Amino acid sequence: MIEIEVPVEKIPYIRTIEGRRFRDGHWFFPDSSAKILKQVGLIDSQFEIPEKQTSKYETSKFLRKYQADIVNEALNHEGYGIFMDTGTGKTITALEIAKHIGKTLVLCPLSVIETAWIDDCRKFYPEIKIINCWGNSQSKRIEALHAKVDVYVMNYDTYKILKNEIRKSDFQCMIVDESSVMKNMKSQITTDILSMIDVIPRRYVLSGTPNPNSNLELYPQMKFVLPDLFGNSYYGWQATYFHQDMANPHVWYQTQDDKDRLFARLSEGAVFLKKEDCVDLPPKVFEIKQFEMGKEQSLYYDNIMQDIKDNINQWSKFEFTAKLMKIREVFSGFVINKDATISTFKTNKEDLLKQTLEEIGDKQVIVWCQFTHEIESLSEKFKGVGLTSKTKNRDEIIREFKEGNIRLLFAHPKLLGKGVTFTKCTYNIYYSLSFSYEEYRQSQDRIHRIGQENKCTYIILQAKHTIDETKIYKCLERKENIVDELYLEMGLKVKEKEKNNG
User: Fold this and answer.
1) Which keywords label this protein (predicted)?
2) What is the dihedral of CA 84, 86, 89, 92, to 10 degrees?
């Protein structure tokens, strides 16, 4: 940082400098602002920034080169954004950082505490003492927080409860896994996490998708790791790298130049790593298998589609989404009634699943489903294991599947969406598809990640001559929002038809 006094008449010249701070009568500027400060005469033209001294850390031999490089870069910063694709080894990279620093707090989704953080630590870093701080009582949580270990892992809700105790616990490092949890600057979890900036000296964030909706979501994550990088004003940062749409003032957009400037600045405190750029993985193979709908199934489908055509321009997007979900039920041979009972009917989809499983043979398979009814009924019919939100021994099932002791697993992508590695498995079957590209991509990465040595096959079961074939899967291929795309397209078609008929 450059520390100087700024005369009042020069204040207007420094307002555009990011990361500036005023403290005890002096201004502090990031080293990168030296050129501007010279231009406005605030520092001598001969002033040179001392070359930053970096240390070379010896890392574990099993790390890949790109992981070791990221560890070294991160350890030479007080904070760092580690934005690595799923399947590139974020957890191991973070554990290596913790090993070098000392007492570390890790925040992550509850679903990956045991099956990712605890398991990976025990496998790769047996010398590190690690504890799960989640508990169903405050006394258990406090007891875990006061244990004499190296790494303390908890979910976000536990952190909210324990944050005052954490302030008194002398942590040297804090790691936020799946840091897009703090993408909203106004959310309570973001406020709670940012409150540790002046408490815990070393801070890191991990995510494969830190900005799922907009680059605006990067600000709070980077503020946590490097508060001086973009300064204290979110709105000032927003105005620097984004443009407001005058027709829709709530919309902010970027030109390519804006993006280039933003990511050039981000590169001073973060790394963005794509899986294809760093890991030599076997190919993905996608296979479409189609089935004909039965008479009753077709009747349900036709009635819902007609209802959509008749009413879409009077419906909200929420109402339209409910109809799309109902169509997805029909494709799988059932409908959930208003009284929560379930009506089932014959579907050729089950026969196609049976045929597909027979073709695969005795190899491990994950069958992705969108409904609890699918998971429960199919796991029973095909003698597999079903994983739902009601499953109590979830972690045990995941470990058994990892070890190859379970052949056939039925689950929703959200239950296994992040941090879980199944490299002994090479087949995914999509019995029903998510409307979320992020869910779809994450489900693929459960098997296509570091450690996978074999070709990964993804089989999609589709209803012929329906939007399952013509729209839903195609939207996922294009990484588009299915609901938004169909809501707009089907609404416009109805309006055009009404115009022509009129």
Assistant:
1) ATP-binding, Helicase, Hydrolase, Nucleotide-binding
2) 90
Give residue for tokens 């709070």.
220
Amino acid present at 440: Y
pLDDT of residue 10: 82
Q: What is the largest CA-CA distance in the chain?
A: 83
From the list 4, 106, 104, 90, the residue with the least C-alpha distance to 47 is 4
Paired sense of beta strands 79-84 and 21-23, if any: unpaired
Q: For residues 235 and 117, what is the distance between their CA atoms, to the nearest angstrom?
A: 36
Map residue 132 onto helix, strand or coil: strand
Distance of CA 73 to the CA centre of its chain: 23
Specify the pairing of strand 284-291 against strand 270-273: unpaired
Cα 183 from Cα 218, distance rounded (Å): 6
Token readout for 457 is 């096959």
Strand pairing report for 334-336 and 342-344: antiparallel
Element (H, E) at 488: helix 482-501
Of the listed ranges 138-152, 271-285, 456-470, the least confidently predicted one is 271-285
336 Cβ neighbours under 8 A, 6+ residues apart: 329, 342, 371, 373
* Domain architecture of the chain: domains with CATH: 2-39 (no CATH), 65-278 (3.40.50.10810), 284-497 (3.40.50.300)
* Of the candidate ranges 55-69, 249-263, 414-428, the one whose mean pLDDT is the lowest: 414-428
Does residue 495 register a pLDDT over 60?
no
Which residue in this structure is represented by tokens 């009404």?
498
Side chain identity at residue 401, one-letter code: F
Of 11-15, 379-383, 387-391, 429-433, minimum mean pLDDT range: 11-15
Where are the alpha helices (H) located in 168-316, listed in sequence order?
A: 188-194, 218-225, 227-230, 234-241, 256-266, 275-278, 295-311
The candidate with the shortest Cα–Cα distance to 288, out of 476, 425, 414, is: 476
Q: Which of 4-8, 54-58, 188-192, 338-342 has the highest mean pLDDT?
A: 188-192
In angstroms, what CA-CA distances link 204 with 173, 267, 364? 8, 14, 36
What is the per-residue DSSP string for 461-481? EEETTSHIIIIIHHHHHTT--
Residues with Cβ within 8 Å of residue 430, at least 6 apart in sequence: 368, 443, 458, 459, 460, 461
Six-digit token string for 75:
């350890």
Q: Are the beta carbons of 449 and 86 closer than 8 angstroms?
A: yes
